[in-house]
Design a protein that fits this description.
Length: about 260
């Protein structure tokens, strides 16, 4: 499954006063072909203009036997004019049997690589420096969309996101409010806002067999609803295209302040 799309997943307005952004920890389970293949935990704190968001992802079950992937990411920044302005971003883990690390810092709205391993030139084309101004990191795209939903009650938003290796365009659009049916896989059922999203690589294409996949626009659907009293709307379910195995389904399994 495309990682950026996952990060993008882990991105309604109710009558009365708008709910306030607050700290929350959310747990998710990812299913492919009806089997649980991965788990993820998102910690988000948007209770003030300064924000922090962290993601932990790991494969489970038979996927863990064959892949053994795990990933931890975090971002920190500040909302300025309703837009995220990141200070720093970090990513570390083991993907496809290889240890991977990236560290970025922002100065004047432009990211600088502080650490990266393995070197990007071993697998991808470099992203031209001229394209990096006014970009955010992939987790900041989640911050932007959650803030947009809290502020307007709709999902419309887009961001150019850079993770130290590639530049992507992440976009979301509102579809309709609808009923999410009960599932034994999730703690949530009820009214939610259905949105569609897309992830397109703009630069930093893979130099090997993955280039064709980078040239493809990845799409998915996400449902958002209020799951914690007095808190903002949060992702409760999602469907993401995979290259070979149909759609991956993501279910909310826990939520706490």
């Amino acid at each position: 499954m495309n990682r950026a799309a996952l990060l993008t997943l882990l991105l309604l307005a109710s009558p009365g006063a708008p709910p306030k952004a607050a700290a929350a920890q959310l747990g998710y389970t990812i299913y492919v072909l009806g089997l649980p293949v991965a788990g993820a935990i998102i910690g988000v704190d948007m209770a003030s203009p300064a924000y922090r968001l962290a993601l932990r992802f790991h494969t489970t079950g038979i996927a863990d036997v064959f892949a053994g992937d795990k990933l931890e990411e975090h971002t920190a920044g500040r909302l300025e004019n309703d837009e995220p302005a990141p200070f720093e971003y970090g990513s570390s883990g083991r993907i496809h049997g290889q240890d991977r690390t990236v560290g970025l810092t922002w100065h004047g709205g432009t990211p600088t690589i502080a650490v990266i391993a393995p070197p990007n030139t071993a697998e991808r084309e470099d992203v031209p420096a001229a394209l990096l101004a006014h970009t955010v990191d992939p987790l900041d795209a989640i911050v932007l969309l959650l803030h947009q939903v809290e502020r307007t009650g709709r999902c419309e938003g887009s961001a150019r996101a850079y993770d130290g290796r590639r530049l992507q365009l992440l976009e979301a659009q509102t579809v309709v409010e609808e009923e999410v049916r009960h599932s034994l896989r999730s703690i949530f059922s009820g009214r939610a806002l259905r949105c569609q999203f897309s992830d397109q690589t703009l630069a930093g294409y893979r130099t090997g067999s993955g280039r064709d996949d980078d040239l493809r626009i990845h799409r998915g659907t996400i449902w958002l609803a209020q799951v914690l009293p007095g808190a903002q709307k949060l992702p409760v379910r999602a469907s993401v295209e995979t290259r070979w195995l149909g759609d991956a389904m993501i279910y909310l399994t826990s939520a706490s302040p």
